[in-house]
Design brief:
With 74 residues, the chain is mainly α. It is 45% helix and 5% strand. The model has no long low-confidence stretch (mean pLDDT 93).
Length: 74
Amino acid sequence: MQYQQRIETDHQLMLGKPHIKGTRITVEHILRKLSEGMSVEALLNSYPALSKEDIFAAIAFSADVMKMEEPLAS
């Protein structure tokens, strides 16, 4: 998934948090809703500006960010 076409960071918008282009919906918000059990279909219904591809882009972006992180100490 080429999330760069769908996700941007702008320090003038949403405090610089990564968000879906053309919206104020952050990657964090999408992931939080999914982690709370909201389905993709429910997200799409609640946020008409989102597409299924936007949601998958948010997940792909997060996976790439996590790939660069140091493991948490146990």
